[in-house]
Input
Amino acid sequence: MRALVVEDDPGIANGLAASLRQAGYAVDLCHDLACAWRALQAEPFDVMLLDLGLPDGDGLDLLARLRQPSTGARSGRALPHHDMPVLIMTARDGVSDRISGLDSGADDYIVKPFDANELQARLRAMLRRASGRSNPVIEHGDLVLDPAAHTVLRAGEPVALGGKEFALLLTLLQARPQVLSKSRLESALYGFGEALESNAIEVHVHHLRRKLGEALIKTVRGVGYFIPRDDQASPERAR
Output
């Protein structure tokens, strides 16, 4: 999961980024609206955490711009992030402020100061709704992944995964049976400036197959990777 944190207070931004990275998110930071808009146009994100009082304007303006279908500029199409979950995090604690934020297109609203664990629980709930799930755990055959506990069970037995392995498995399970390209997976797992080897995704896939079985993750040659809903390989070119 890749998160964009838009927050102008360095202490809050860096602390939040550290806690999210520890929870397995790839995190990018922006300190103003201009940076956030450039980031949204350049990279895919799964969720945005948005402060309202920013140096160059109100975060609600960015949210309104994001939710407008016409923000695809010349094409007239919405940005890929048009429906991306957005969590407002702000010191504005009035009822009218919360109503305004939610009615402007935010999916949730949390008032500063907040507990990092509560914020992460809200993020998990938002992402769960966005993927059409109600169950807090993800089940696939005899595989059970718990995003909150950061655990994976295979046939009832715990499987130890590294942070990037867990993030990759979560991304593929949430997208199933969609095929995700290598570049999309890299974007989901690595933020701006993170060291990335050219074969990083292949290495993570190899480790997951070794730990969870060769049949779990399929390869579509020249396209990417996917996990089929029925745990069966589909096209002939997939293996």
